[in-house]
Design goal:
The chain has 4 helices and 7 strands, in the order H-E-H-E-E-E-H-E-H-E-E. With 192 residues, it is α/β, with parallel strands linked by helices. The protein has a domain of 133 residues: 2-Layer Sandwich (60s Ribosomal Protein L30, Chain: A), CATH 3.30.1330.60. The protein has a 5-stranded mixed sheet with strand order 1-4-7-5-6. A two-stranded antiparallel ribbon has the order 2-3. The protein is globular. About 14% of the residues have low confidence.
């Protein structure tokens, strides 16, 4: 295996491991994709409310046997936006993206979401090198976090970020598609 392939798999493994910070391993994703849409504040509140009632059944050691129920795991909800755009090869948020970020900030400071934590994922397409895309996606997620903190006084501890680069493509058949360049929000069950 070539050194760049080894680095790719190492970075991919690290990203997957860090993603587990906000999700339960093995749980299926509940994706809400707002690509090309213009969701209202109320739609955003509904989408960003943690999916506490969506559960999967799991098996863990020691749970098998008469009368033993398998534990349940909360399915992480992902809310994806391709409207949060950036200048080419930059982490500068485009003016067009600010309208959606303003609705997101308003929703996140609503009574319904005021104590919910979020993981903000930055994603890129597969063009360019993996190390470059990992850094760029991380910078973009950080830029969104900064914007929400500065514009809406959201407590910084409520917003964590991760750059996923091209490791979780939305359009796997077209790795360089613009659909893969997006920002994803994962509301966390861990409330403040």
């Amino acid at each position: 295996m070539r050194a760049d392939q080894q680095r790719f798999w190492l970075v991919t493994s690290l990203v997957v491991a860090l993603s587990g910070f906000f999700s339960i391993a093995g749980a299926a994703d509940d994706l809400i994709d707002y690509a090309g849409k213009n969701p209202s504040r109320d739609e955003l509140i509904d989408a960003l409310t943690p999916a506490a009632n969506i559960r999967t059944r799991g098996i863990s050691p020691g749970t098998m046997g008469a009368g033993a129920a398998a534990p349940t795991a909360v399915v992480p909800r992902k809310v994806s936006f391709d409207q949060i755009t950036f200048e080419l090869n930059s982490d500068r948020i485009s003016p067009k993206a600010r309208a959606l970020l303003d609705r997101l900030g308003d929703a996140m400071t609503s009574d319904q979401l005021s104590d919910v934590n979020f993981l903000i994922e930055g994603h890129t397409d597969a063009s360019g090198s993996l190390p470059y895309n990992m850094r760029l996606s991380s910078k973009r997620a950080d830029a969104v976090r900064r914007y929400l903190i500065e514009s809406y006084s959201i407590e910084p501890s409520r917003l964590k970020t991760i750059g996923k680069g091209p490791t979780d493509l939305l359009d796997k058949a077209n790795p360089e598609s613009g659909k893969n360049r997006r920002v994803v929000f994962l509301p966390s069950e861990d409330r403040q």
